Amino acid sequence: MTPDPTSQTRQDFDRQGFVQLKGAIPISVLAGLREGLDPLREARDSLGDRPTRYQTILEPEHFHHSFADFLDLDVTNQAAFDIIDSSNVMFAGLACLLGCAEHVVCRWHRDTANMDPVELDLLLNQHPNALVQSNCAVYDDVSLWVVPGSHRRGDTPEEETYSARFNDLGFLDDIDAVRAVEADVFRAMPGAINVELKAGDCLLYNPLLWHAAEYRPEWKRCTLHGGWKDVRRLDQFSLLRWGLAHNPWLMEPDYMGDLGTNFGPLLARYQQAVTRYAS
Ligand SMILES: O=C(O)CCC(=O)C(=O)O
């Protein structure tokens, strides 16, 4: 597959900071993902202190072949190549977002914690598509909120002021504590919209977007969370090198069987990056 920088996907991503690929996961792969992920979803509340995700689902103990089939899909990989404007791209890890047994809020943030301001400026202004993140829904999912267009600029004064109101709360906090600050934490963020994913839909988004999430105990959530990184920018951006040490088992991937024509090369480039930066 070759990238098409003029694609509608690329234009939409540049403008909004995200694209929603409806029905990206074929029914047969979706069925396999449910079979592979339901045990993790059911075990969620024994995974740790207030668990909301399983970070490394490719580890041998939890691997299911549908995870490799999912990572090899043409439609999602072609979209990522178009957005990044390269197929010299690597796998960026794969987690499963599982919701929470309590009603909590993941506060408004951009994924730039501890980032050097110079690097952040370069990423906002020169190489904004170097990292593409994904939320792919295995069951319908309305947890995520985003501020479209916020990926290509610094914070507005309104965003700064609004976000600062929650500074005494945690990254994840109980809905009652959040509502004591603001009754409608999601809609009150200027420009915010809710992302409505049907099972099989994939959202590809820029992690610099302002985003937040709601987790409700009655929602059945099982959303694959991964992405793609532009190998050409690894030297430049620490955000792209984050997490390289999280999946040591991927250095000997025979247990996964056939990886396909997309996931195979994505993983090979990931292994090269681990060897270069994380070993
Ligand atoms: O639960 C989600 O969809 C968002 C998670 C998130 O914001 C993050 O991991 O940075």
Distance between the termini: 31 Å
The biggest beta sheet reads: 6 strands, antiparallel
- Overall 3D form: globular
Count every helix, treating DSSP H or I runs of 4 or more residues as helices. Answer: 9
Strand coverage percent: 15-25%
In CATH, the topology is named Jelly Rolls
Indicate the mean pLDDT. Answer: 95
CATH class value: Mainly Beta
Architecture in CATH? Sandwich
The poorly predicted ranges are: none
Order of helical and strand elements = HEHEHHEEHEEHEHEEEEHH
Report the C-alpha radius of gyration, rounded. 18 Å
Structure commentary:
With 279 residues, this protein is α+β, with helices and mostly antiparallel strands. It has one domain: Jelly Rolls (Sandwich), CATH 2.60.120. Helices cover 32% and strands 19% of the residues. It contains nine helices and eleven strands. It has a six-stranded antiparallel β-sheet. Strands 7-4-10-6-8 form a five-stranded antiparallel β-sheet. The chain is globular. The chain starts with 7 loop residues before the first helix and ends with a helix. The mean pLDDT is 95. Bound molecules: 2-oxoglutaric acid. 2-oxoglutaric acid binds next to strand 10.
Layout of SSEs?
Elements: H1 8-16, E1 18-21, H2 27-43, E2 53-54, H3 65-71, H4 74-84, E3 89-97, E4 104-109, H5 117-125, E5 131-137, E6 144-146, H6 157-164, E7 172-174, H7 175-181, E8 193-194, E9 202-205, E10 211-215, E11 223-230, H8 238-241, H9 260-277
Antiparallel strand pairs: 1-9, 2-3, 3-11, 4-7, 4-10, 5-9, 5-11, 6-8, 6-10
Helix pairs in contact: 1-4, 2-3
Bound molecules: 2-oxoglutaric acid.
2-oxoglutaric acid is lined by residues 97, 106, 111, 135, 143-144, 211, 213.
